[in-house]
Amino acid sequence: MAPNTPSRPTYIRVKRDKTIVFLCIKLDDTILNIKEKLVTAMSISKPVEDLRLYLDTTSEHQTLTGRVLEDHQTAKSAELVNDALVYLVYFDHNLGKWEDIHVVEYESLDDEIEEDTTDLTDESTKKKEKGKGRA
Question: What pTM was computed for the model?
Fold first, then answer.
């Protein structure tokens, strides 16, 4: 890349429970900087020391797993590429340990939408058929 040429922004997906945050980062950002951005973006009331990020290493049909991202690492050295999936967990002071990675699976609502569309189509057909015989 030529000097003075701006690099393309890198976006990562950060997941926790039912939440997904799309965060724009620079490759020279440290993991600590990224955590600070997350605290602001998600309005987290916890200190950054109570946040841990994991880079997704889950293979197909496995439980969620990740590699811990250390605060001193840069996004580049941590291998955060565009559209990387990162998990966010908190430190539980009551239990004295880090939470497990937990993300609620996406539930498609397409089945309900198709049923609703079918009903609307049937209704519009019925209305057209009623008016056919008049004139």
Answer: 0.72
